[in-house]
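Residues pack. One example:


***
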Amino acid sequence: MARVKPDLLLKDYKPVRLLKRPDNTPERAKFPVIDAHNHLFGDPSPEEMLAVMDAVGVRTFVNVTGNVGMPLVDNCYTIERREFDSFLRDYVEPHPGRFAALTMSEFARWGDFTLPLRPGPGRQEFVDRAIEGLEADVAKGALGLKVTKELGLQFRDESGAMVAVDDERLFPIWRRAGELGLPVLIHVSDPRGFFLPIDERNEHYLNLLEFPGWSFYGSHFSKDELLEQRNRVIAAHPKTTFFLPHVANDPEDLDSIAALLDRYPNVVIDFSARIDELGRQPYSARDFLVYYQDRVLFGSDMPLSTEMYRCYFRFLETRDECFDYMDYIGRWGHSRWGIYGLYLPDEVLRKIYYENAIRLWPALEAAIAE
């Protein structure tokens, strides 16, 4: 009689796939790559990062949170505010063309999630400081403004009221970014499972069991409310380009993203940290990326490693079937399912890898040409 483990826990169930298919993982990307969405995970030196980038063909690393660091503490990445100048000094200036950054301006608030939005005599308000900080950092070389998911989920005004994404008191910031020709990379909400009960029906159950802080179930605004708020901001600022990461934070519903792109020509997206979602719907994802090839940027949003980048290239370039991917924090062996390669045409790969990023940020063209 076969022996079984009746007490095996779900979190320990990690079946080894018995499917035998070729592994055509590329050593390097087929074309030069601009990683348009990443962060400084830990405290790697620029030399360490360049060694990885050179090995796989990534030409430019865009740190979208130039005002913060993410040191590793007790095996977890924590967030701390840093001066924007420090990333420029240590990474951008010594290695022209290889590193770039966005500024978070006054949105880089950790530990204090109060935005002083109400008028007060003799006091410089949040919006004024945010615009002032944005302009100062752009003068130093910032390529755009980054706004994190805390807007709509954690930021409150001084009265204690939750600040909605479409709060009109913030409109001058979005308008000024458009006047400066800067994209606003705005992360609104998170995967749908993060807004659902943590139970047997939630496909993110194991993630949320391990990281309960990722759950936003019962938040002030639902996921759909947050996305609707974001879309109202986009509609109200047609002269500002909005860069929506993670397949506009709704990769589980590509039809909704297609409708979004059709409706708002001032939107571009990336697929950073969401190849798990796209890779389980390869036919739809391929059709989507081919059709919207001018509106999609390459982004990884994961700690740098050759294995991470090569997994992304395998997903984009090959016809490989049912392979593992890295999870949200760059670990192997935590795949919820296998993903499939999209085998994108060369003209689409060029646009996603670097051409669309250059159109968004012309300053990066010299790096690719070099």
In short: The domain at 31-314+345-369 is CATH 3.20.20.140 (TIM Barrel).
